[in-house]
């Protein structure tokens, strides 16, 4: 009995010590958009409906370890395991995003509506093709942080997908760039790439983005945008052009967003003008709830 009490007390002490060092959190996000365009029925689309669980702790050798699990509305459960080696972070698991996917968000778009972050380009970040991959993220070296991901053969009909991206800051401007190598057994091989630049001055947020599919028929998209705060809301305007073989499409997006704690609401006006067709105007109302 005495030994049992001692053993129980020791276990409780170990668990208490572990709990003091470990951190665990749970969160969720729901985002939906109602669209209204001339000549088309009003529609609603849910872009995100997920629950996230994360846990972090340290191993006996001092390395940090974290586990993140996401459950999406499609029923998919993905798990990431990240190990901080002190010389960089090693990422494992079936939920690792491609290196490009983690950095290719557009600083030129100021809407909470998920535009992809491209309007018309079929730019591929390599995330889906990478499938289950292994990742490595470097610590900041001379102000540059880089990430590389390597997809496995059984997740892609072709050579292994390699994705590389890096970010840095120069004279106050945040710069990100990346490249993904796609070489399928059937179809067109391509090395899609991106570059984004963001800068803040005098209460204005300036953004530039370029997404190159590396295939002439699917285009290269460039974006310019400026955002600011206006009467307690966030406002922004974006101009973009997607160049494809024989067709150039221009976009203008005006966004207005109001954050209200756990919920945010946004209204967008998107004007699309293709060189071979009449222009279209689309209104969108987006609502996002997170916890």
The second-level CATH architecture is Beta Barrel
> What is the average per-residue confidence, as pLDDT, rounded to a whole number?
86
CATH C-level name: Mainly Beta
Q: SSE order in H/E notation? A: HEEEEEHEEEEEEEEEEE
Task: Tell me the Rg in angstroms.
Answer: 23 Å
Which range does the strand content fall in? over 45%
Low-confidence stretches: 1-20
Cα(first) to Cα(last) distance is: 46 Å
CATH superfamily: Porin
Query: What name does CATH use for the topology?
Result: Porin
- Main sheet: which strands, in order across? 1-2-3-4-5-6-7-8-9-10-11-12-13-14-15-16
| Domains (count) | 1
Explained architecture:
The chain is mainly beta and 291 residues long. The chain has a single domain (29-290), classed as Porin, CATH 2.40.160. It contains two helices and 16 strands. A 16-stranded antiparallel β-barrel has the order 1-2-3-4-5-6-7-8-9-10-11-12-13-14-15-16. β14 and β15 (263-274) form a beta hairpin. It is globular. The N and C termini lie far apart (46 Å). 27% of the residues are buried.
List keywords for this structure.
291 residues; 2 helices; disordered N terminus
């Amino acid at each position: 009995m005495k030994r049992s009490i001692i053993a129980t007390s020791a276990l409780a002490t170990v668990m208490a010590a572990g709990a003091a060092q470990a951190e665990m959190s749970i969160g969720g996000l729901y985002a939906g958009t109602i669209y209204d365009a001339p000549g088309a029925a009003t529609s609603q689309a849910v872009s995100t409906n997920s629950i996230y669980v994360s846990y972090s702790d340290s191993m006996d050798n001092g390395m940090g370890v974290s586990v993140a699990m996401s459950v999406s509305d499609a029923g998919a459960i993905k798990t990431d395991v990240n190990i901080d080696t002190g010389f960089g972070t090693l990422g494992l698991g079936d939920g690792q995003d491609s290196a490009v996917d983690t950095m290719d968000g557009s600083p030129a778009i100021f809407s909470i509506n998920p535009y992809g972050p491209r309007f018309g380009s079929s730019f591929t970040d390599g995330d889906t093709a990478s499938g289950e991959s292994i990742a490595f993220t470097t610590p900041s070296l001379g102000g540059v942080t880089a990430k590389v991901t390597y997809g496995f053969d059984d997740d892609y009909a072709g050579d292994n997908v390699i994705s590389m991206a890096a970010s840095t800051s120069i004279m106050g401007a945040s710069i990100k760039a990346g490249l993904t190598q796609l070489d399928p057994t059937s179809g067109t091989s391509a090395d899609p790439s991106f570059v984004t630049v963001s800068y803040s001055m005098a209460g204005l947020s300036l953004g530039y983005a370029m997404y190159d599919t590396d295939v002439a028929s699917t285009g290269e998209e460039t974006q310019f945008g400026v955002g600011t705060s206006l009467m307690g809301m966030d406002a922004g305007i974006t101009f973009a052009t997607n160049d494809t073989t024989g067709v150039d499409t221009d976009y203008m997006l005006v966004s207005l967003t109001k954050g209200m704690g756990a919920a945010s609401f946004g209204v967008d006006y998107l004007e699309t003008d293709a060189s071979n067709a009449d222009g279209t105007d689309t209104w969108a109302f987006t609502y996002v709830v997170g916890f």
